[in-house]
Amino acid sequence: MITKLKSWLEDNLNSRPDDENELQLDLATAVLYCEVIRADHDLDEQEQALMQSMLMSQFQLCESQAKELIHSSGDEAKHAADLVSFTRLVNARCEAEQKNLILENLWQLAYADDHLDPHEEHIIRRIADLLYLPHSQFIQAKLRAQQANDEKG
């Protein structure tokens, strides 16, 4: 299933066809983001727009590539039994700074609809644990996202 999806992404995204590792990292990260926006069972347009913007910025994708990645990651997230395969890939390919950026983005996605659902917080906590990020980083990222949300509203 992963091989088939990866092949489809390479054919349709044309983002970096020579860099298989980056493409896998794009998908793994997008699945983690997808898990957070799906956690409250309400796919909000603000969350989806923010996720698209984050993916475009983080992986230097154009709008159509980001939309395709979101679509593919949503399908992958629905069929995934757990988050371990995705976090394992992130752990293998990312430094602590990159993993912290993912954590920050997860919190921003959770606050995008101006409401932190307990399910969103639980998913982010699980992901942070699977990324071997210390609890202090988890809390600091949450507080920064909360403050940024308060300032925008």
From TrEMBL:
It comes from the Bacteria. InterPro entries: DjlA_N (IPR007791), TerB-like (IPR029024). Pfam families: TerB. This is Tellurium resistance terB-like protein subgroup 2. Residues 27-142 form the Co-chaperone DjlA N-terminal domain.
